[in-house]
Amino acid sequence: MIGPRVRAMRSLVLVTLLGAALTACADTSGASAPVEDLGGLWGTQDTEGIASLDLAADGTATGTDGCNRMTGAWEQNGTQVAFGEWATTRMACPSVDTWLSLAVKATLEGENLVFFDENGVELGTLQPNS
Fold this sequence. Notes:
It is a single chain. The protein is an alpha+beta fold. Helix content is 16%, strand content 33%. The protein is globular and about 40 Å long.
């Protein structure tokens, strides 16, 4: 069983990492164009085998990588989104690419969110759900 001290330390590390990721993603172009709120639904919801994500106004992110349910934290800085550590189910889905659960950040490109792993490798793209 994990004690309260370990949970508190994990939370502190998560907040620190999320802040560092946002700082690294900061837009330094000096542009003053307004940036839209990236919260809301991304991808096709409730479609088996397809990734989707809900970025809620309270900073929680929930969705699916096409197989497993996911929950975590998100924060927007300009056109960038940084994600905290994901909590996911662990079902085996051999025919599904579970790329979304590896995402640590995303960038708005046009109307789409493009997701990247911790090494900056592009993982995939989600369109806004309208």
